[in-house]
Design a protein that fits this description.
The chain is of the alpha+beta class. 34% of the residues lie in helices and 16% in strands. Strands 1-3-2 form a 3-stranded antiparallel beta sheet. A hairpin with a 5-residue loop joins strand 2 and strand 3.
Length: 90
C-alpha cells in the first residue's frame, strides 16, 4: 500500500508556499507507511501528534480506510494500527 496525496487538495505551484496542516499530516503518515519496515510487514502504527488537529486526523483515517484491502485497528493508547494486503495478480 502506498499513500498518495488527496487529489481534492490542490498542491501549490510555488515552492515557498507553506503546506496546509492536512498536507503536513499526510506527508508524515506517508513516510511512515512507505518506510521499508512498514512495507515488509504490511503494517504501520501511527499516532496523532499534539499539534495536529482532530479534524485533519479523522479525515486522513477516513481516506485511508476507503482503500481496498486496508484494515484500521484503533488502540487504547490512541494509536491506529494500519494493516494491508497486496492482492495477487491474476
Amino acid at each position: 500500500m502506498c499513500i498518495q496525496q488527496n487529489k481534492e487538495t490542490p498542491v501549490s505551484s510555488t515552492a515557498s508556499a507553506t503546506p496546509s496542516s492536512y498536507e503536513q499530516l499526510g506527508v508524515r503518515i506517508q513516510k511512515i507507511i512507505n518506510s521499508p519496515t512498514a512495507q515488509r510487514s504490511r503494517a504501520a502504527l501511527i499516532f496523532r501528534l499534539e499539534q495536529e488537529t482532530p479534524e485533519d486526523w479523522e479525515t486522513l483515517l477516513e481516506e485511508i480506510a476507503e482503500n481496498d484491502n486496508v484494515t484500521l485497528a484503533h488502540r487504547d493508547d490512541g494509536g491506529v494500527q494500519i494493516f494491508w494486503t497486496v492482492p495477487k495478480e491474476d
